[in-house]
Amino acid sequence: MKDDPMQILLVDHNEIDLYIAQRNLDSEFRQAEILTFLDTEKAFEFLKTQVLPDSPEYRFVPDLILVEINMPQMSGPEFLNSLYGLKGGLYKKKRAYLTHAMYSDRMGHHVPKNCAGFIQKPITVERIREILQDLSSGPH
């Protein structure tokens, strides 16, 4: 992993799930910069600006992406496929997980090939520790 503080993107339309996940991430990744969105389209539009050649020196290019599978407008898999398709391939090497409330949420969804897997909500501190271990092993 890089020496800079870890950058984490969290996208969920449920404010309570978003709050719980952010709180648990804050407790485990104390130095992390965590950015949250309630809408995948807004998150995608923001991230598109971070890969432009004229972006400011500060860029938010998350090391870890957690996105709800059943988002309105653009689903979690659609969001990741769009992100991975951006020019330059910057996000293809980033670790992403789809979050879901229950096993049945996963049914019928195509999982992007660069997606590391599913995480059942609520996102617990224990699961965050597993993700940290996974991240320290490097990209797949």
From TrEMBL:
InterPro entries, sorted: CheY-like_superfamily, Sig_transdc_resp-reg_receiver, TCS_response_regulator
Response regulatory domain mapped to chain residues: 7-136
GO BP field: phosphorelay signal transduction system
PROSITE patterns (alphabetical): RESPONSE_REGULATORY
Highest taxon in the source lineage: Bacteria
PANTHER family in the cross-refs: RESPONSE REGULATOR RCP1, RESPONSE REGULATOR RCP1-RELATED
Record-given protein name: Response regulatory domain-containing protein
Species the sequence originates in: Robiginitalea biformata (strain ATCC BAA-864 / DSM 15991 / KCTC 12146 / HTCC2501)
